[in-house]
């Protein structure tokens, strides 16, 4: 069966998600903020749920149309082939979003979409009342600039919930964002990967999963496993293929350190559940005091406190100044720091080689990337002399 699908993601992860879709055999059709539309078949759908590290959900797209009025929304929805998926006993709840559109009332749109689907199914199954006791097909509408897209959710629980992290620290990083940071930092077998603010271990775990080619969806189930048009043998075969492609013999090693012993114990359990505990060394250490092992190439990737949930803003500023000095001694290691602090570079003491705008939940953040050898003291002097002008340049380097 030819399927048009939509994979959603956190803002800023579209390029990474698109590359992942290419790898599983999907054919990209359209990219917009937070979502990519692509074509494939049932196997592509299964692989998307099992293997995409940066996707939040995967949908089947029934169709798109202009919807400037409730009548247009009703008629456009009714014209779609819902009976190709939804049986006469199946459940089909509706939810969705409306952004920058004339139709802005989500409850009203839900009601219109539901009525339109009922009318369509009633004309096919010759019945007016549907028990909705069978397979659940979660319908989701997305109306953006008066264009409505109608979809069926195939993931169920959001894909960032891998299944390895039932316990988290006080300010957990979403697994999809951690995977993106790890992708950008490029974990390698011959390069030590270190997260000195590891918390529940998410960045190190996702890096180890990438390095060992561990599919992120192996520990969980998906809504589409109940869909009768995808044979259970397809799910079994793709799971088995993913398991066989895991590189257990990988020599990849990550350090994951923190100052909270209780959180470290949770992180160890998370790594064990993810199946990558042999590739991560957890230990108690203050990020302000870490030192690189002799003769080792390394990469630091971390998500230090922002001063919003952990530590005060003043404490965070002092922390950023301290790690700027500490990480200087790690040179020529590459450094990747995710934070919401717009003045991070001036506090850290060095301008980033590249800055990428991302979102940690609803918090706008930047991933500051340091990968070119550079004298940090010279960089600090440059920042100090540039004053406010430097802040203006920093904004222009976000992409």
Note down, in words, how this protein is organized.
This protein is of the alpha/beta class and 399 residues long. The chain has a 7-stranded mixed beta sheet. The C terminus is likely disordered.
In short:
The protein has helices at residues 14-23, 42-51, 70-78, 106-125, 175-185, 202-211, 232-244, 261-274, 313-328, 344-348, 376-386, 388-396; strands at residues 3-8, 27-32, 35-40, 57-66, 94-99, 139-144, 147-153, 192-195, 254-258, 280-284, 298-302, 334-339, 354-360, 363-370. With 399 residues, it is α/β, with parallel strands linked by helices.
Features:
399 residues, alpha/beta, seven-stranded mixed sheet, elongated
Produce the secondary structure layout.
Elements: E1 3-8, H1 14-23, E2 27-32, E3 35-40, H2 42-51, E4 57-66, H3 70-78, E5 94-99, H4 106-125, E6 139-144, E7 147-153, H5 175-185, E8 192-195, H6 202-211, H7 232-244, E9 254-258, H8 261-274, E10 280-284, E11 298-302, H9 313-328, E12 334-339, H10 344-348, E13 354-360, E14 363-370, H11 376-386, H12 388-396
Parallel strand pairs: 5-6, 8-9, 8-11, 9-10, 11-12
Antiparallel strand pairs: 1-3, 1-4, 2-3, 4-7, 6-7, 12-14, 13-14
């Amino acid at each position: 069966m030819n399927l048009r699908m939509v994979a959603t993601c956190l803002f800023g992860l579209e390029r990474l998600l698109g590359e992942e879709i290419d790898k599983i055999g999907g054919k990209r059709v359209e990219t917009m903020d937070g979502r990519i539309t692509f074509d494939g078949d049932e196997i592509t759908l299964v692989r998307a749920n099992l293997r995409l590290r940066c996707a939040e959900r995967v949908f089947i797209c029934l169709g798109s149309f202009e919807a400037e009025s409730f009548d247009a929304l009703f008629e456009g929805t009714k014209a779609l082939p819902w009976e190709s998926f939804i049986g006469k006993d199946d459940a089909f709840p509706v939810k969705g979003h409306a952004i920058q559109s004339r139709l802005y009332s989500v409850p009203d749109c839900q009601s219109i979409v539901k009525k339109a689907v009922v009318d369509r199914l009633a004309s096919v199954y010759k019945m007016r009342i549907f028990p909705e006791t069978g397979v659940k097909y979660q319908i989701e509408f997305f109306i953006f600039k008066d264009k409505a897209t109608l979809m069926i959710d195939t993931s169920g629980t959001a894909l960032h919930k891998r299944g390895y992290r039932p316990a988290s620290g006080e300010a957990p990083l979403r697994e999809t964002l951690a995977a993106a940071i790890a992708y950008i930092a490029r974990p390698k077998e011959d390069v030590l990967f270190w997260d000195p603010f590891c918390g529940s271990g998410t960045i190190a775990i996702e890096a180890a999963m990438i390095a060992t080619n561990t599919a992120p969806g192996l520990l969980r189930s998906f809504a589409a496993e109940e869909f009768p048009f995808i044979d259970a043998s397809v799910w079994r075969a793709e799971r088995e293929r993913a398991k066989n492609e895991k590189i257990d013999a990988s020599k990849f090693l990550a350090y994951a350190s923190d100052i909270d012993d209780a959180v470290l114990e949770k992180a160890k359990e998370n790594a064990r559940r993810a199946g990558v505990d042999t590739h991560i060394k957890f230990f108690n250490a203050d990020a302000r005091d870490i030192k690189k092992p002799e003769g080792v190439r390394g990469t630091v990737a971390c998500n230090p406190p922002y001063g919003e949930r952990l530590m005060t803003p003043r404490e965070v500023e002092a922390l950023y100044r301290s790690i700027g000095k500490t990480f200087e001694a790690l040179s020529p290691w590459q450094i990747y720091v995710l934070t919401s602090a717009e003045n991070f570079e001036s506090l850290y003491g060095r301008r980033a080689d590249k800055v990428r705008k991302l979102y940690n939940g609803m918090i706008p953040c930047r991933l500051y990337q340091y990968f070119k050898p550079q004298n940090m003291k010279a960089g600090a002097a440059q920042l100090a002399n540039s004053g406010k002008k430097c802040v203006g340049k920093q904004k222009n380097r976000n992409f």
